[in-house]
Amino acid sequence: MPVEEQVMSKTAKLDLGDKTIDLPIIVGSENEHAIDISKLRTETGYITLDNGFGNTGACKSAVTYIDGEKGILRYRGYPIETLAKNSTFLEVSWLLIFGELPRAGQVDELAEEIRKHSLLHQDMRHHFEGFPATAHPMAVLSAMINASSCYHPELLEVKKIEESSLSMVAMLMAKVSTIAAFSYKKSIGEPQRYPDPSLDYCNNFLHCMFSKPYGRYTASPEVVRALDLFLMLHADHEQNCSTSTARVVGSSEANLFASMSAAVCALWGPLHGGANQRCIEMLEKIHRDGMDVKQVVERVKNREFKLMGFGHRVYKSSDPRATILKEACDDLLKALGVNDPLLPIAQELEEVARNDDYFLSRNLYPNVDFYSGIILRTIGIPVEMFTVMFSIGRMPGWIAHWKEQHENPNGRIARPRQVYTGATERDYVALESRP
Ligand code: SDX
User: Fold this and answer.
1) Phi, psi (degrees; rounded to nearest 5) at 236
2) Count H helices, E strands: the chain?
3) Do 142 and 259 sit in the same domain of this protein?
4) N or C: which end of the chain has fewer CB within 10 A?
5) Which structural domain, as residue segments, surrounds residue 65?
């Protein structure tokens, strides 16, 4: 279980010239040091300013640990490499949300609850009729997650997630999968395929996505394993933009569905979860136009565009997920006998960038989005749905953080300050007197 942080006897001395104050230093269980500035404004009138919060801790958390310099990622203390080899998406979901690896039978309990909740309320079919076939599936997903709460008003008042409220966790994980598949069927003009309770999470999703009115789709074990690994590797990543959004929205005591819907919107951005779609589109353009990889890299260095799937706010060495996904991508293509021309392009891009000072000096390495798109493309997921797949994977992480925040007895509504730079006080000018 989480090790409580130590408040060190050491303090940080802030000398403001006319005043000096001592600020407590907090040390996390991985020896991360933080200066607690909770009293800064009341004691000095000063606030801090930190563009993009690169130096600011928003909370204490025991869910996920990242060491960006060493390329370490652990879910509740378990290295991602170990979980990738030995675990499943549902098992990792339980670990993230409830803090311990599930005991025998608990994963089956979660799987059973998910099966029970995988159907949408029949009335929700009409929502899909209202969306154009060209609607971006992330818009549909965020809208339908919020819409789901209209059919479960009892969940709007839930403030805490205990193991007894497993059904709410399962409901969100189940619904996002069904909503995603239904939105895909709508986009291709095919009748929606209802979930089959005899199938596990990944097989059910692939069935709802790819079974035809005239024939049942059965995924190969390699495809199912690749999808399960993809979802597990996306399950959490501490205080990233979308998880922070889930926590900020949840801090106002907005319900879980509203918080998850907001997180989906934040993930949609091309600098965040939307990068997997942009990365594949970039690789497809390089392939389609027969572009020389070295020229592409020169254009990136000339700041014509960013190399999507590269760089990270926290990882200043390789993203361990990218390493695992690169190997999984290779294995899947070999197992299926698929020769995807984008893979050698991606590998060459990585090779060139890893030996170029522009990237090395900025600590730019492949991130989770660089190879994941090739896996999704091989499975047959349309590129517009790549970020939806990221959302399905990240759902347990968002829930885990929402739960942790609601369990914090000292939790407060998120309300940052600002440094005002606008006009100072001036007199109102009546309309007729304005030049
Ligand atoms: C995810 O936070 C998380 O944990 C996110 C995530 C998760 O699991 O939740 O890991 C998922 O969002 C991964 C990131 C996916 N996004 C992309 O692949 C988009 C491309 N990457 C960049 O936009 C960028 O690297 C970010 C957004 C990921 C990080 O941006 P930062 O930390 O704000 O860094 P920055 O923009 O200040 O860049 C620092 C320097 C700049 O050059 P200088 O102005 O110093 O000369 O590096 C350059 C940037 O121009 N740079 C890039 C680049 N990323 C940064 N140059 C070219 N290509 C890139 N991809």
Assistant:
1) -160, 160
2) 18, 6
3) yes
4) C
5) 6-72
State yes or no: is 289 an active-site residue: no
Render pLDDT for 20-49 as a digit per residue (tens, 0 to 9): 999 999 999 999 999 999 999 999 999 999
Residue nearest to atom 12 of ligand 1 (CA): 272
Both 48 and 99 in one domain: the answer is no
The reply to whether 246 and 142 lie within a common domain is yes
Question: Is 121 strand, coil or helix?
Answer: coil
Q: What is the 3-state secondary structure (H, E, C) of 306-327?
A: CCCCECCCCCCCCCHHHHHHHH
Structure confidence by residue, pLDDT tens digits, 66-82:
999 999 999 999 999 99
Quickly tell me which residue has 């497809």 as its tokens.
Answer: 284
Say yes or no: 281 and 266 in one domain: no
Q: Where are the beta strands (DSSP E) in 210-326?
A: none
Pick the atom of ligand 1 nearest to 242's CA. 9
**369: annotated active-site residue:** yes
Please state whether the predicted TM-score (pTM) of the whole model is above 0.85.
Answer: yes
Site residues for ligand 1, CB cut-off 6 Å: 52, 237, 240, 271-273, 275, 300, 306-314, 362, 364, 367-369
In whole angstroms, what is the distance from residue 30 CA to residue 67 CA? 9
How far away, in angstroms, is 362 Cα from ligand 1 center? 10
Which of 334, 354, 379 is the last residue before a domain boundary?
Answer: 379
Q: Where are the alpha helices (DSSP H) in 337-385?
A: 342-354, 357-361, 368-379
65 and 175 fall within a common domain: no
**In Å, how far are 70, 78, 152, 386, 430 from 314, measured between CA atoms?**
10, 19, 38, 22, 51
Q: What is the pLDDT of residues 300-322, one digit of tens each?
A: 999 999 999 999 999 998 899 99
Cα of 363 from ligand 1 centre, angstroms: 10
Residue 11 domain-assigned?
A: yes
- Ligand 1 pocket, mutate which of 364, 365, 392 (most atoms under 8 A from CB): 364
Name the residue of 313, 391, 394 to mutate for ligand 1: max ligand atoms within 8 A of Cβ: 313
Q: Which atom of ligand 1 is nearest to the CA of 243?
A: 9
CA-to-CA distance for 75 and 77, rounded, in angstroms? 5
Q: How far is the CA of 280 from the centre of ligand 1 (A)?
A: 17
As given in the structure block, the two tokens for residue 318 are: 């390789």
Domain total of the chain:
3
* Same domain membership, residue 161 and residue 101: yes
Average pLDDT over residues 125-144: 96
Say how many C-beta atoms besides its own lie within 10 A of residue 422's C-beta. 4
